[in-house]
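Duplicate of #3305? Posting structure anyway:
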């Protein structure tokens, strides 16, 4: 039996949601987070502001929900059971996220705005950063269980090291990230963490 929607309940149409998501990303690229408005998104999406507010109570909630829905799954890699291969895949995933359009333009702007707005910084951490880091933390914990990493591995440092190197090169230096660079980052991180028993780098 088909369940009836209660009288007065909001009906969230998937096609409208998809149009809003596209509009949010386009507005972030063209206007940046600070100048983005619910009015601008609604106009670009061809819908009403009320359609946005039925989904998200604030601009911040809307933007972070849209970015998290796409950004967080990008950090989920298929584990092979070998730390080097898994770390290399994590490095490639990070580079793909930072380099993909439109995120290559959106992420640096959002991080800059977060430095000026503590509440936004906290929200980014909760909705995007921590869920992404959870995937890598799980990978590292299993590597410890297999004996590929020391039991006393600094998990915060281990989660930071690959992302920091890639972010610095791509976002700060605006330098290209090629496969051999990701190989070098992976090997550097594994050496710094005292990894043992990982697969050797292929020639």
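Output from current build:
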């Amino acid at each position: 039996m088909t369940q009836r929607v209660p009288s007065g309940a909001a009906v969230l149409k998937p096609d409208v949601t998809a149009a809003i998501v596209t509009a949010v990303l386009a507005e972030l690229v063209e206007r940046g987070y600070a100048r983005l408005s619910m009015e601008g998104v609604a106009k670009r999406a061809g819908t009403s502001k009320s359609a946005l507010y039925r989904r998200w109570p604030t601009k911040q909630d809307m933007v972070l929900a849209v970015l998290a829905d796409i950004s967080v799954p990008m950090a989920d890699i298929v584990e092979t059971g070998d730390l080097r291969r898994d770390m290399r895949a994590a490095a490639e995933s990070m580079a793909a996220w930072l380099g993909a359009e439109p995120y290559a333009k959106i992420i640096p702007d959002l991080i800059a705005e977060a430095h000026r707005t503590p509440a936004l910084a906290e929200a980014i951490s909760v909705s995007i950063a921590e869920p992404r880091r959870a995937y890598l933390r799980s990978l590292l914990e299993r590597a410890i269980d297999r004996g590929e990493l020391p039991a006393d591995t600094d998990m915060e440092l281990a989660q930071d090291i690959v992302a920091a190197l890639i972010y610095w090169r791509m976002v700060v230096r605006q330098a290209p990230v090629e496969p051999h660079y990701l190989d070098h980052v992976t090997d550097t991180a594994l050496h710094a963490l005292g990894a043992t028993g990982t697969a050797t780098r292929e020639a």
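Confirmed duplicate; merging threads. Residues 1-9 have pLDDT under 50 and may be disordered. The radius of gyration is 20 Å.
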